[in-house]
Every structure is written in structure tokens, then in C-alpha cells.
Amino acid sequence: MKATYSVQLQFYQSIYEEKLQRFHLPPEQLPFTAHPSLMLESNEKKRPIVITYNSEPVGFFVLHRSERVSEYSQNSRAMLLTAFSINHTEQGKGFALRAMNQLSEFSRKMYPFCNEIVLAVNKRNIPAQRLYEKAGFLDTGRRKTGKIGEQLIMSLILQHEEEDR
Q1: Rounded-to-10 torsion of CA 34, 123, 68, 136
Q2: Is residue 110 a contact partner of residue 147, using CB atoms and an 8 Å limit?
Q3: Quick one: which of 70, 85, 88, 159 could link to 24 by a disulfide (CB 3.0–4.6 Å)?
Q4: How many helices (H) and strands (E) does the chain have?
Q5: The N-acetyltransferase domain covers which part of the protein (predicted)?
Q6: What is the spatial distance between Cα 116 and Cα 76, in angstroms, rounded to a whole number?
């Protein structure tokens, strides 16, 4: 019998706020992401997503449908992933990859119109680039200048069931 993981992607709810406020990110990671406590605002164009393990928050990111997406993709059905982080005490346990491996299914279910997830990752953030590559993201070859330097634009193409047939 194959082990099942209890890592899940959940839309942010206020029950997670206290633990997200207490997330610790080491100083060397802060330039590459935003602390979850700064990204909790939710609306129809920006949805915070909590990565849970056994119902406890271990990670976080935001999915955007806003105008910002057009800075990264010309695809009108694309969404933008930002502010990805794993609480420092939970890093190295495989939660990041397990969460990213669920992103396609989660997106197809919650955002059926979406056929691409895009993100920008700093050129110096090699661990994050490797994570995204393992999860199926591809370097588009496009670059963007961010607050702390060059960013690679990466894309995950989502296959929908009707497209698979």
C-alpha cells in the first residue's frame, strides 16, 4: 500500500492567521519572497493559498488573476504564483515539492479556465529554481528585472482532462 501524504493546498482562512503571523523565514530567504503575514488580503483577483500538513500551516503562496499576470505571460488564461515560502522550521521535509506537485490538480479544480501558472524566481535563488523545475515548471527564456536583480520567468502548462483525450 502506497503511503499518502497529508500535505494539502487550502484557500486562506482566518483560522490560519495566527500561525502564519509566526512564520519564520531566515534573513537570507527574505529578499526572495514576502512574509505570509503581508500577503493575507484576498479578493477575486488575488487568493492566498496555505500549504498544510496534517491541517497545520507549513507553507504559503498567492495565486493572482490580476493585471500583474500580463507582466509575465501574454496568455489570458494564465495565473501568477507569488510569495512562495515554507516556514523555516518545516523546511527540508519535502513539503515544498509535495505542494508544488499538487498545484496542477488544485488549479484545474479551483480555476478551470486556467491553463498556465507563471512565476518569477530570482536568478540567484538556485534552490527555488530546482524546486520549480522538479515540479514541472520550465524556464521560458524571458527575464524580468526585480527589486534585487534578474528574475527568470518560469511556466507550468496545465493539461485539462478534455485536452488529454
Answers
A1: -100
A2: no
A3: 88
A4: 4, 7
A5: 9-159
A6: 9
CA angle 115, 93, 147 (to 5 degrees): 55
Residue 106 · residue 9 · CB < 8 Å: yes
Cell of 78: 494564465
pLDDT tens digit sequence for 59-117: 999 999 989 999 999 999 999 999 999 999 999 999 999 999 999 999 999 999 999 99
pLDDT of residue 3: 47
Joined grid coordinates for residue 97: 515539492
Q: For the purposes of burial, counting CB atoms within 10 Å of the CB of 87, is it exposed (0-12), middle (13-18) or buried (19 or more)?
A: buried
Q: SS3 of 2, please?
A: coil
**DSSP 8-state assignment for residue 147:** T
pLDDT exceeds cutoff 70 at 161: no
CA 112 – CA 24 distance, rounded (Å): 33
Write down all domains in the chain, each with its CATH number in brackets.
7-164 (3.40.630.30)
Q: List alpha helices for the chain, DSSP H.
A: 17-21, 95-110, 126-134, 161-164
Q: Which three cell numbers stand for residue 37?
A: 503575514
Ramachandran class of 149: left when φ > 0, alpha when ψ lies in -120 to 50, beta otherwise: left
Phi, psi at residue 162, to the nearest 5°?
Answer: -65, -25
